[in-house]
Amino acid sequence: MNITNRKVWIFGAIAIGAILLITLIAAPSSNKLMSGSTYSRSPDGYGAWYAFMSERGTPIQRWQKPFSVLANSQDAQIPTTLLQVHSGFIKPYIDNTERDWIKKGNTLVILGMVEAVTNAPFSTMHNSLEGKIKIETTRRHKKNPIEGKDINEILGDKFGAIVWQEEIDKGKIIYVTTPHLAANAYQDFPGNYELLANLVTQSGIWKNKKGIEAKNISITSDPIYSINNLKLLYQTNKISATKITTNILVDEYIHGYKDSEALNCQNKSSDNPNCQEEETLFSYLANTPIFPAFLQGLVIILVTIWAANRRFGQPVTLTTPVINNSEAYIKALASVLQKAGSSEFILDIVGKEQQLQLQRSLGLGDILLDRESLVKAWVQQTGHSGVELEQLLQQQSEKPRMRDKDLLNWLEKWQEIHRSS
Question: In the list 26, 123, 351, 373, which could disulfide-bond 396, CB 3.0-4.6 Å?
Answer without folding.
Answer: 351
